[in-house]
Amino acid sequence: MKDLATLLRRAEAGNVAAQAAVGLRYFYGDGTAIDFAEALRFLSSASARGASRATVHLAHIYRRGLGIPGDLDEAIRLYEVASEQGEFVAQIELARIYSSGAAGTPDLVKAAQRYQRALEQAPRIQACEELEEARQFLARAK
Predict the structure, then answer these.
(1) What angle, rounded to 10 degrees, do the helices at 72-84 and 52-64 form?
(2) Confidence category of residue 29, pLDDT binned at 50, 70, 90
(3) Positive or negative, the Cα torsion across 52, 56, 57, 59?
(4) What's the rounded Cα separation, in Å, for the pair 3 and 1?
(5) What distance in Å separates the CA atoms of residue 132 and residue 80, rounded to the nearest whole number?
């Protein structure tokens, strides 16, 4: 793994992989202090250039209001973008939003669709609580 200074130079030079990596480092405090403003800056740049994992984390920032006012509509939009790029976590987060009614009235049909899409990725996903969550939701929905 590259040191932060090297990654920062590459990110500032426009390298999308470095932008995503730096954004994630600031998001998690990996090798630096947690800094959501810097995470937002780098993840936004990477997301705008198609980095789906950066888009998921950017959505987390908006959903949770990390260093900025929360914006669920923007979080949903970003999760939708990432889900269209095949991001498993985006499917799960959208399912949770729809099933809980966080965006208004619960929409169990949309939630089931997202959980189903997440389960379709199961062959390439390591066993995790989210897969079991999807299975249980769909079993209850029958």
Answers:
(1) 160
(2) very high
(3) positive
(4) 7
(5) 22
Instruction: Write out pLDDT tens, residues 64-93.
Output: 999 999 999 999 999 999 999 999 999 999
Q: Letter for the amino acid at 93?
A: E
Long-range pairs of 97-101 with CB within 8 A, sequence gap ≥ 24: 97/72, 99/137
Cβ atoms within 10 Å, residue 88? 22
Dig out the tokens for 1 from the structure.
């793994």
- Is the pLDDT at 1 greater than 80? The verdict is no
Query: Does the CA dihedral 85-122-59-47 come out positive or negative?
Result: negative
Q: Which domains does the chain have, with CATH numbers?
A: 1-85 (1.25.40.10), 86-142 (no CATH)
Among 68, 52, 51, 64, which residue's Cα sits nearest to residue 96?
Answer: 64
